Amino acid sequence: MAVDGDFCPYFQQAVELIGRRYSGAITRTLMAGPLRFSELERSIPGISARALTLRLRELENAGIVARQVEPTSPVRVTYELTDKGRALDDVVAELEHWAHDWLAPAEHAHAS
User: Which domains does the chain have, with CATH numbers?
Assistant: First the structure.
């Protein structure tokens, strides 16, 4: 799909959803597979439990993340990407590639 220059409200909605603080990091981290809350928290530097909870709820409400509750003792809760969330795989990979090329210090950037 080519970008034609016309304003697209869906694009704006997507950027605001994934662009919220830590939403991209959560999505990228879950690309590797389901994780428990504590595993996600340890995987994302600087995130607070409150921020993680808020972002997970938003991503769950948007249908990007699914919360799975296993009725064990104690209860085990994992988070994983839905099909809608997995559809962001190429977007996340391209954004990471762009970040390495344009935001990383020269010694960390890779050749395109």
Answer: 36-81 (1.10.10.10), 82-112 (no CATH)
